[in-house]
Amino acid sequence: MGKENARARITVKVQPRAKVTRVAGRLENTYKLQIAAPPVDGKANDECIAFFARIAGAAKSRVRIISGLTSRMKVVEVEGISQEEIERRLMS
User: Fold this and answer.
1) pLDDT for 1-16, tens place per residue?
2) Which residues pair with 63 in a beta bridge?
3) Helix, strand counts (H, E) of the chain
4) What is the CATH number of the domain that holds 55?
5) Hey, is 61 helix, strand or coil?
């Protein structure tokens, strides 16, 4: 599978209104993601997408929340990066 076809899915538990946006740990297959945005008007979702775009070095259009738009538990899909590579970047 080439990089252009690579696709990673990450399960996150979002904590909005944090001081900074960062990964704050991992519990089994779920990452705890602190978001520096309130959960109103889609701001926390927008910040979540922007965070994963920065981590992956991808355009925001290549990142989408495929599950949990109105929940703290979300599944984020990123195109153009492998599962192994994004997990490595999240933990570094």
Assistant:
1) 456 689 999 999 999 9
2) 78
3) 2, 5
4) 3.30.1200.10
5) helix
